[in-house]
Design goal:
The chain is 31% helix and 15% strand. The chain is α+β, with helices and mostly antiparallel strands. A seven-stranded antiparallel beta sheet has the order 1-2-13-4-9-10-11, covered by helices on one side. The longest helix has 65 residues, at 163-227. It is elongated. This is B-box and SPRY domain containing.
Length: 478
């Protein structure tokens, strides 16, 4: 946009009254606001609509303020005095009828140029506005296309998504597999019940017959003793000997496992894994009793994390509940019935023990009485470096694993007499042990390397440890 020498000017006598004079060309165009870009541009603007006619001059700015308030991207880089280096009348400042304080509320529009103003500067400013309008128009077109075309297509894709059908098909398959497994196990149970019952009936018939023989022999001997004299007894000695010899062949009853129901018939790896997974989905909240925490361990504020320290901490209170040598800790509450499950994050540690124990477990001294897994009052799953074991009563049972678990679930069926250790990530049963528990059980923990943490109720998926396993040397007799 360029202005000729005869372009519109601001009359000095009107500048003092706070309004800009119109050029003759603007006066002949009543629909074009005076001072707008459209009234002075020789080429058409690529904008949706002309600027509104309601724009009007605002009040005079405060001293020292003017067109310098324009954004730096729109401010002309010229030197000189006045508003940002330009005369007030050159940029439509409020002192010469500008728009509401140099664009602080409404962007200021360039006023008709005055002699000496650079035409290139005006053209650059106008081109910036036009480019900005074009970018806004392109952005609006992209958004409109997204709303009109992309989103409806995506909505239709969501409605016909195969995810719903996939879930239904998989659950139907799982249901069928469970039904088949249920039928198989019930048939196994029925067959085992019949076998055990038949064994009982067979033994019952056998011992009933033996009892009858013994009773008949006893009656015979009583008759012989009662009715025969001494000579008659001597004569009947051979007959009496033969009959009593038959009685000696009847042995006393012995305990037989055949008379018991064999629980192995209901052992199903599929059922066991499904059961463990279902129980862990409803794992309970457990907190650690700070009164039992060893001086080698520090307990977090939420009572969920145990951190090992080679140096014993100085404790204000050392009660009878606290372990004073082994790095052990007990949960705050015990249970004596029902089904219980909790999860522990062990990805940071390569020396820990998890399990259950009786409340009578000793707490003091370095002996095996207080060492988890080395007495009859504790059942634990143990890791020491790359060695995994189940420990009870000082009898370790090795557990072969392909990889170290990052999280371990502990399940206790008190009535069923089972404690089970489970890897939720791989849905693998690490170890299962059956025991007739005789007293309330406490969840128990021990750590001799870094830290372990109780997991919240929500299921979390583990990840591979981000540290290199190291041999725990802090507590060598762990």
């Amino acid at each position: 946009h360029r202005y000729g020498a005869g372009g519109p000017r601001v009359r000095p006598k009107d500048a003092g009254r706070g309004r800009a004079s119109r050029s003759p060309s603007a006066a002949t165009q009543p629909d074009v606001p005076p001072g707008s870009i459209a009234s002075h541009s020789p080429r058409p603007l690529r904008v949706p609509a002309p600027y509104p006619r309601s724009l009007r001059a605002g009040p005079a700015p405060a001293p020292g303020r003017g067109c310098g308030d324009l954004p730096s991207s729109l401010r002309p880089e010229v030197s000189g005095g006045g508003c940002g280096g330009l005369g007030a009348s050159e940029w439509g400042c409020v002192r010469e009828g500008g728009l509401r304080g140099c664009g602080r509320d409404v962007p200021a529009l360039p006023a008709p140029p005055v002699p000496g103003l650079s035409a290139a500067l005006l053209s650059a400013f106008q081109n910036k506005l036009v480019d900005r309008c074009e970018r806004l128009q392109l952005q609006s077109a992209a958004i409109a296309k997204h709303v009109d075309e992309v989103l409806p297509a995506r909505s239709q894709g969501v409605l016909v998504s195969p995810a719903r059908e996939l879930v239904i098909q998989r659950l139907i398959l799982v249901g069928k597999v469970c039904e088949n497994e249920e039928q198989r196990l019930l048939e196994e149970v029925h067959a085992e019940e019949e076998r055990a019952q038949q064994s009982i009936l067979t033994q019952q018939a056998h011992w009933t017959e033996a009892l009858q023989k013994l009773s008949a022999l006893r009656t015979y001997l009583v008759d012989m003793i009662t009715n025969l004299d001494d000579q008659g007894l001597v004569n009947a000695e051979q007959e009496i000997f033969e009959r009593t010899e038959l009685a000696e062949g009847i042995l006393e009853p012995q305990e037989s496992a055949k008379l018991n129901f064999n629980q192995q018939c209901v052992q199903s790896p599929l059922l066991h894994r499904l059961w463990a997974s279902a129980v862990l989905c409803c794992s309970q909240e457990i907190s650690i009793d700070e009164k039992t925490v060893s001086p080698h361990l520090s307990l977090s504020e939420d009572k969920k994390t145990l951190t090992f320290s080679p140096k014993k901490a100085k404790l204000d209170l050392d009660g009878p509940e606290r372990f004073d040598h082994w790095p052990n800790a007990l949960a705050a509450a015990a249970f004596h019935t029902g089904l219980h499950a909790w999860k522990v994050s062990v990805e940071k540690s390569c020396a820990y023990k998890l399990g259950v124990c009786y409340g009578s477990l000793p707490r003091k001294g370095p002996g095996n009485e207080a060492r988890l897994g080395f007495n009859a009052a504790s059942w634990v799953f143990s890791r020491y470096d790359k060695e995994f074991r189940f420990l009870h009563a000082g009898q370790p049972r090795p557990v072969e694993l392909l990889r170290a678990p990052t999280e371990i679930g502990v399940l206790v069926d008190f009535a069923g007499g089972e404690v089970l250790f489970y890897d939720p990530d791989s849905c693998t049963i690490l170890f299962s042990h059956r025991e007739a528990f005789a007293a309330p059980l406490y969840p128990v923990f021990a750590v001799a390397h870094q830290s372990i943490s109780l997991r919240p109720r929500a299921r979390t998926f583990g990840k591979e440890p981000n540290h290199s396993p190291s041999t725990p040397q802090e507590h060598s007799a762990f």
